[in-house]
Task: structure prediction
Amino acid sequence: MTFNFDRPHDRTAVPGEKWGRYAGRDILPLWVADMDFAAPPAVIDALHQRIDHGIFGYTEAWPSLNAVVIDAIANDHGWQVESEWLIWLPGVVTGFNLACRAVGEAGDSVFTATPIYPPFLFAPDNSERKLLTCPLELEDGRWQWNREATEASLGARTRLFMLCNPHNPVGRVFDRDELTWIANLAEKRDMVICSDEIHCGLVLDEHRPHIPIAALDSAVARRTITLMAPSKTWNIPALYASFAIIPDAELRRRFRRAMRGIVPQVNVLGMVAAEAAYRDGDTWRRALLDYLRGNRARVLEAVATMPGLRTTSPEATCLAWIDCRDSGIDDPAAFFEHAGVGLSDGKGFGLPGFVRLNFGCPRATLDEALSRMSDALAEHAMRMR
Ligand SMILES: Cc1ncc(COP(=O)(O)O)c(C=O)c1O
Result:
């Protein structure tokens, strides 16, 4: 079966954040992390069938849903998960906020490395925890952990280490050595790890497999809350079906306690879509990854010619993290928006001077956006002369 990722879709025909932000303006939205591709046919068919049933009563996750998720994780990542470890959630952001609430107590601290997907930065405070951060550093063309600085930034009351792997926005797939170092640090400092692995289905570098940190060994698994979802991989984020994997019974109890009366069950349509995606979506996913690799190459090629801009090759995700600090432009997100391209501002990720470009769109849209960026930069360079 072939899938046509070049096909344009009029996303302004329905309400939606990505295109709605610039309604009526000639600005191509390459910001929020959803893609301009229709979901896989298998997912759409499953949704049609469920809708045709006509009754949408309260529904808990069912055995065949858990079974396909467990199979997919075993096949893709070599990690054997048990059904009772799964807790379905209406969102991964919900999951890491719950982790902040379930681990330690008010006044404790939570660590995360920056730059980072913005809701990580607010989650600790939402649960009266203190946020501690340390920057990732660019070394040899890859974003890396500064291990000494990371350890030094932890406090006596740091109870939770929030990891994002694959990483948004820098696109790294952390390797076994890095993950083992994090796991050892968590053990030494008696921290729980909350690992947001929402992008694990979007690994672009075939020689860098995603390793769930909890899959390192059972001791690491016991101190880890892993968060996953079909939402990024199969482009169904507004269906809000996600899950936590918590092998330790006591940690699971604390997590459920934090949910009680506040977090609802997952929408039945989200779970129907999730089951179809994990069971029947792999051919589509592989075709998508090929297409995204092509788009990534376009971005890398174009950015290399843009004066004052540089980027690294994202190992996973459909996101390019672009350093504009040498361009002489004060507010690059505003500059490119003015040029007709809507990007995410690095400021919100804790690193001003950068922008994040989402290349999950038809190639024609991407090429047009890159050419607008190039033209605007050329004009800017002329004016600066
Ligand atoms: C790393 C990461 N975590 C979580 C989310 C959002 O998760 P959800 O919409 O399930 O809350 C995103 C969306 O971009 C993300 O990039």
About this structure: Residues 249 and 267 are 25 Å apart (CA to CA). DSSP finds 13 helices and 15 strands in the chain.
